[in-house]
Amino acid sequence: MASANSLREKLEKISPSEKTEQVIVQYFANPLLYELGFDDLEIRPQFETGCGKVDFAARKNTEATDIFYNSQKNPYLFLEVKSRTYDLSEGSSTYEEAVDQVKGYLSRERSKSAKWGIITNASYIQIWRKHGKVVHPATANLSINPDNIETIVRDLRNKLENYERALTICVYNNKGGVGKTTTVINLAAALAAKGKRVLAVDFDSQGDLTRSFGLSPGEITLTQCLKDPKIDVHSIIQSLSYPINNRFPYIFDSTLDISFDIIPRDPELETLTDSQSLAYIQKGTRRLRDLIAPLRNEYDYILIDCPTQWLYFSQSGVFAADVILIPTRPNDLSSLNNAVRVITKFIPETARSRQDGGPIALPTFFNGVSSGSEYTIKLANEEIDKLIKQEKSVDLRPYFWPHFKKGNEDKSIFRIPDYAVISSASFARTPAVFKRRRVLEYYQSLAREYFIDE
Ligand SMILES: Nc1ncnc2c1ncn2[C@@H]1O[C@H](COP(=O)(O)OP(=O)(O)O)[C@@H](O)[C@H]1O
Ligand SMILES: [Mg+2]
């Protein structure tokens, strides 16, 4: 088996303008897979994914009779190799193409078990993680050379061996009243009703989420925990349980009580507004990410609710997240404009300071669509067309029209209807999804559209 040293040497031997993919495969990609911990019987070249062949698929063999090379079942990782003349620098159209290609491979039926996709041309390397339906970058697109390759490969191997259980979702739009808090509450409950382990974090000093559940802070508070890294984050988590037997008999795909966890807001959080009080929080907007880090292996989903203003709380929520879910209102054109600000400004800013490739925006959705509002939707779609045309730096189409493809100009946008029970539920201290079967269906379809791979 090759050693990291020889990978360095091999990289040194590849010409900076190597045109043939085969050379990259032989001198770099294959040795890379060995370094990541796979041996020949665990690597399958030219693996058919169902939408084309990926250069390599790999998976650890679990027992003597289960040889991945032979069975080609349950791949764990894909490696897509390009030549050095194939431009993989970020922002190039060929980079975008390669990313789409790997996302495509990862989302096929045959690839259900696959968790990782690596793209490399021996000048750049990036690894993408799959969690349910979501594929998001797990590293920045790294420029590689003989000096840094050992460190990079060690970090990659570390990631592969410590796959984190949770996807962290921040629900954010820089516009108020679009349904951020409502989405966190009902999506959390809908995912929990699907048997997922869910944590919702109220990172809005107004505390709408905490109030909707009728919770009050425990003895140790979120603010104390933010200020003192020695406090165990588990001490601020509260559990909610909804016994389904008599109260919610319509949730038939679950037999146990539905439970999920909340980190509630405390009143002191409101004092964290100026630089003087924020000075008590080490690492500022990075602190929340560190605070929830130990929980990433305990939950399937961590949802963060934040306030509208792009200040400390929302900057922290976006910084802590893998993906940002952006609700908009079709009858509120500024919610569409603000969504574009989040996509083109706030998220890229955050990604630049994080330097690990994330977070990324998921496609936006329409929240609160009332029946008979086709005219409103038409106006919203015209506004979206305009925004897409205006924006020169980013192709916004996949952020508004997730199913839009060449030859299939599908401009549909996911919708959550306007429904009175959704707004009245917060007074009842019960998520609306537990009050009406139809509301549960709305939010479970949101969960299926974006997150759950069933
Ligand atoms: N789909 C919906 N149907 C009916 N009412 C909704 C819906 N989504 C949100 N609301 C209501 O709209 C108001 C604003 O929602 P909220 O979640 O508090 O927005 P944000 O957190 O973005 O400020 C609330 O009164 C909420 O109950
Ligand atoms: Mg809110």
The outline comes out as globular
Beta-strand residue fraction: 15-25%
Q: Rg from C-alpha positions?
A: 23 Å
- Largest sheet at a glance? 7 strands, mixed
Which structural category do the helix and sheet elements fall into? alpha/beta
Number of domains as seen in the coordinates: 2
- Which homologous superfamily in CATH is the superfamily of the largest domain? P-loop containing nucleotide triphosphate hydrolases
- Gap from first CA to last CA: 38 Å
The low-confidence parts are none
What is the number of strand segments? 17
At the first level of CATH, the class of the largest domain is: Alpha Beta
Q: DSSP helix count?
A: 17
The average pLDDT value, as a whole number, equals: 93
User: Architecture of the largest domain, CATH level 2?
Assistant: 3-Layer(aba) Sandwich
Give structural attributes:
binds adenosine-5'-diphosphate; seven-stranded mixed sheet; 17 helices; 2 domains; binds magnesium ion; tt1808, chain A
What would you say about this model in short?
It is built from 17 helices and 17 strands.
